[in-house]
Amino acid sequence: MTLVHNWHLGRTMEYPYFESRPKQQFAAVFNINRCIACQTCTMAHKSTWTYSKGQEYMWWNNVETKPYGGYPQFWDHKILQLLWDNGNNPMEWYTSAEDMDEKKAPYGLYNGDTIFELAKTKGLNQMAVGYIPDDKEWRFPNIYEDTAASEKVNYETEAAKESSELPEHKRWFFYLQRICNHCTYPACLAACPRKAIYKRKEDGIVLIDQKRCRGYRKCVEQCPYKKPMYRGET
């Protein structure tokens, strides 16, 4: 492990490789305020990239309704639970003036363990903590679409049964658009024992070299966003 600066966290963190930045960084911006979850982007992406045999369950682009929805189901709850149950440091943000820096810490300072740091402190034989979703969790990409919740609802087991009442809006949901984040410090890249994953120098896109891949699924396990997907047909 080496130390790299993560401006999202506002601090240095441990990562298996030295910091290496691309010449430019690809980015996609979704306007959450304008999105109505029509799924046009989802279907366009599906019909272009993942229409072949063995890719039936794959949705590289998806729009899910939060707080219930998720593809794979409860991907965010599960990775946060792993950090919460096993972390040595509290998952807290410090946002005082002294913790903020326009360039190095625009969001303040995150004190909790990262998936890389937790794997090291727990002595796990892997680069990051994670899990592999089961088949059922991949099966319903639009589960709980447009299902509202309140602060008192158990997100995993209950659904809202009452309509909103003015002037208080006790029921709420929002749409979250998701693609591969092409991370600055990709967990999938760190996890791969074959070194089949790389970040392209010219645009920062994270790619998988199919010739080197042997299907160990370490990338699926250790990516917190579950965007690498395994195709058994190849």
From TrEMBL:
A GO molecular function held by the record: electron transfer activity
UniProt keyword Protease, yes or no: no
Pfam families according to UniProt: Fer4_11
GO biological process: anaerobic respiration
GO cellular component: cell envelope; membrane
Cofactor: [3Fe-4S] cluster; [4Fe-4S] cluster
Cellular localization per UniProt: Cell envelope
Record keywords, A-Z: 4Fe-4S, Electron transport, Iron, Iron-sulfur, Metal-binding, Repeat, Transport
Keyword Transmembrane helix in record: no
Residues covered by the 4Fe-4S ferredoxin-type domain: 170-202, 204-233
Main location (coarse class): other
InterPro entries: 4Fe4S_Fe-S-bd
Protein name: 4Fe-4S ferredoxin-type domain-containing protein
